[in-house]
């Protein structure tokens, strides 16, 4: 016989229940229920982990693809920012650098007013640190510097709030503020033509507007908000790299901010949600796996006479134990593998499925003014699949030990006497 005897008998027991050859229909039902629970638990956990991976990827590649990894500022108005940019870009830890002038302003169109972050950019350098050019045309960048009619590029969320489209006009207002000398600066107002509306699918659509460097400087009154945006080689080390660069700059009054200050809470929330949801779904898998215990306990009770006959025919305690371990392992293996296949399939189509449901019912489940992105991302990682499938099978295997030990302790004489 090429097959080990315990595995052969255990698989025959499982097969007999599924074919209805055994009178214990309840045992077969509970066994199937355990397998279904394991399938759903494994599949659900793979989908959840893929969605969390998707949110993590969108933060790194889309949100931080548009926004810089770090920005170095100086409150002085007489800084040669082109020279500072070139000096910072020469650092081996920095991939690219671009000058920017940031102004917190109010956008007004008719009676609609909304706050925004206006960034004055140099179109020739901004694309080195940002992938905003994936959402904005080159013609729109060129139109920003139109002296006769200054242009502005709005995020889709801002345009929807103001009720404006490309080609229309709006005003930017910078409220009065306190200057570095303690005096008050008057509010400043400027009109712009909307040359493009970008849709990145992220929360930046709700707050970001782009204009030319000179226009941003004029709105800021020539003071504050200027800096150099950086894209570094190691995103998670951005804070350390920024501090090293600040220490190497020759003059005082430079200070900086990195992505962990602006989006660090979002990153931590994604990681915490991934861990908590993963733990909850793992508990679901554990519950489904340990349903195998009740299944095998009922099988052991039902097979007392068979166990006794096997013992009298010379089967050892180890062989009896392995017989029922094999039966439980089959349930765990089938449940984990089928659940893994379902989870892989669901992870690959969940983004398109949710988008289809939104289109079908005319609703939006995720909005960028509440969530980091306005769609459900998914990124399947094979290491997660292997981990989840392996954990599901291992838990099922551990769940077989108790009933298998009970089966190996059945006394032949007592079992056969009770059958009479």
Task: Walk me through the structure.
- By secondary structure, the chain is α+β, with helices and mostly antiparallel strands.
- It folds into 2 domains: 5-61 and 267-419, no CATH class; 76-252, no CATH class.
- The protein contains 14 helices and 11 strands.
- The protein has helices at residues 5-18, 25-66, 81-89, 123-129, 138-143, 156-162, 213-220, 238-248, 259-302, 304-312, 317-361, 382-399, 401-408, 412-419, and strands at residues 70-74, 94-109, 112-121, 151-155, 169-174, 177-178, 184-185, 188-198, 208-212, 226-232, 254-258.
- The strands form 2 sheets. A 6-stranded mixed barrel has the order 2-3-9-4-8-5, surrounded by 4 helices.
- Helix 2 (25-66) crosses helix 11.
- The longest helix has 45 residues, at 317-361.
- The protein is elongated and about 100 Å long.
- This is Lipoprotein-releasing system permease protein.
Give the tags.
420 residues; alpha+beta; 2 domains; Lipoprotein-release_system; two-stranded antiparallel ribbon; membrane; transmembrane helix; 11 strands; cell membrane
Number of helices in the DSSP assignment: 14
- On the 0 to 100 scale, the average pLDDT is 80
Q: Overall 3D geometry?
A: elongated
Number of domains: 2
Order of strands in the sheet with the most strands?
2-3-9-4-8-5
Share of residues in strands:
15-25%
Number of strands: 11
Q: Gap between N and C termini, in Å?
A: 33 Å
Topology as H/E string?
HHEHEEHHEHEEEEEHEHEHHHHHH
Give a quick account of the main beta sheet: strands, pairing sense, barrel closure: 6 strands, mixed, barrel
Oligomer: single chain
| Residue runs with pLDDT of under 50 for 5 or more positions | 18-24
Structural class: alpha+beta
Radius of gyration: 32 Å
- What percent of the residues sit in helical stretches (DSSP H or I)? 55-70%
């Amino acid at each position: 016989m090429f097959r080990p005897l315990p595995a052969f008998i255990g698989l025959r027991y499982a097969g007999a229940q599924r074919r209805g050859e055994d009178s214990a229909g309840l045992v077969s039902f509970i066994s199937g229920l355990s397998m279904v629970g394991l399938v759903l638990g494994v599949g659900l956990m793979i989908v959840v982990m893929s969605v969390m991976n998707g949110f993590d990827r969108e933060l790194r590649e889309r949100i931080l693809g548009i926004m810089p990894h770090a920005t170095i500022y100086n409150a002085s108005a007489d800084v040669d920012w082109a020279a500072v940019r070139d000096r910072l870009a020469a650092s081996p830890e920095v991939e690219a650098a671009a000058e920017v002038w940031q102004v917190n302003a109010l956008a007004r169109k008719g009676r609609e007013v909304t706050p925004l972050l206006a960034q004055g950019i140099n179109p020739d350098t901004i694309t080195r640190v940002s992938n905003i050019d994936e959402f904005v045309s080159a013609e729109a960048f060129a139109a920003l510097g139109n002296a006769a009619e200054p242009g502005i590029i709005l995020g889709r969320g801002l345009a929807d709030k103001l009720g404006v489209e490309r080609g229309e006009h709006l005003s930017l207002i910078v409220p009065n503020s306190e200057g570095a000398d303690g005096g008050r600066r008057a509010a400043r107002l400027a009109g712009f033509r909307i040359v493009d509306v970008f849709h990145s699918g992220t929360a930046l659509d709700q707050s970001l507007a782009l204009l030319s460097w000179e226009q941003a400087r004029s709105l800021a009154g020539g003071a504050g908000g200027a800096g150099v945006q950086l894209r570094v080689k190691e995103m998670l080390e951005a804070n350390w790299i920024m501090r090293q660069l600040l220490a190497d700059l020759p003059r005082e009054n430079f200070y900086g901010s990195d992505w962990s200050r602006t989006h660090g809470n979002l990153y931590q929330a994604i990681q915490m949600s991934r861990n908590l949801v993963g733990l909850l779904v793992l508990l679901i898998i554990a519950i489904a796996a340990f349903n195998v215990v009740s299944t095998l306990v009922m099988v052991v009770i039902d097979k007392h006479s068979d166990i006794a006959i096997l013992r009298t025919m010379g089967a050892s305690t180890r062989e009896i134990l392995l017989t029922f371990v094999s039966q439980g392992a089959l349930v765990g293996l089938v449940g984990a593998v089928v659940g893994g296949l379902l989870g892989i399939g669901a992870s690959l189509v969940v983004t398109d499925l949710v988008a289809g449901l939104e289109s079908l019912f005319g609703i939006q489940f995720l909005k960028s003014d509440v969530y980091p992105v306005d769609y459900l991302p998914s990124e399947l990682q094979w290491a997660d699949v292997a981990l989840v499938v392996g954990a599901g099978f291992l838990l099922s295997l551990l769940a077989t030990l108790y009933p298998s030990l009970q089966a190996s302790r059945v006394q032949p004489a007592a079992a056969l006497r009770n059958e009479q």
